[in-house]
């Protein structure tokens, strides 16, 4: 009875669907067709690859449609606005993003420099964070330590590339991966240290090239559009990413307070809308009442790296302690092969459906011929 009730709930919700206050109807924006319905607080990709610099997405905010361009910085409050026509221009010119792959730090070593003044207690928390991060098997050096290293020519671009740790802007955010352009963005203001060193470690993971856990292609959470705290691109699923097992206990996962949650078990049969979907597509708009608060309490922990977090970094960089090589390329090949197999199966199923339709048409023709003969 509970399953049937759930199905009835979905059917009723879809049949009663009507545009909400504050929603938007788009004009043509890159890959977004004119006349597309967007609920308030939702986003759609207009051009490019989610998470890659240059990715353009449209956002509906209380009936106002704006476009934003991704600058490759994770956890930013909002991406810079851009003229929506830029997405159209890129598409019409045939410009195809071959996104710069997220680069890894050479020789398992990340360099850093403190470019703002931090109080002694904040410096101590960051030092504790560096010690915790050593569980990954990577080496973390200050620029000064790098310059004194006998192998400095092969580290961090001869010690010229590093994360520039500052606290001069609101929020906690970092550029993703090895930028190889001198000091790269890394900001941690005082509030970032409220839970200890966990948020600092979270941002270092971004610098290492790790995306948020809740953008995992196999995530089992719902996104609450009205509760999002940072730029919407931080919630868009990265279907093209190389990934390890989905981990709700990851230090890279957002919490309930940031607009994500695990739905209650009674909604297991409900298809909730993702952040890029609307009720017009036959899904149910996720709301706080759908959340299982107790089950969701594990999300967003900032106490330290989970075992899966450590395994992820070792898959990316290998492990100097054991001598095991990185497996990221093997994972990528496996996932691409799996995706290709699924696509082939879908194409074959579609072909079978087309053949069945053709057979039905032939049967109809035969019936007509028989009728003619009888008459």
TrEMBL record:
Gene3D superfamilies: Collagenase (Catalytic Domain). One of its GO terms (molecular function) is zinc ion binding. Residues 337-375 are annotated as: Disordered. Its EC number is 3.4.24.-. The active site is at 203. It comes from the Eukaryota. Residues 94-320 form the Peptidase M12A domain. Residues 1-16 form the signal peptide. Its cofactor is Zn(2+). Zn(2+) binds at residues 202, 206, 212. GO terms for biological process: proteolysis. This is Metalloendopeptidase. It holds the Pfam family Astacin. Keywords: Hydrolase, Metal-binding, Metalloprotease, Protease, Signal, Zinc. It comes from Aphanomyces invadans. Residues 348-375 have a biased composition (Acidic residues). Binds 1 zinc ion per subunit.
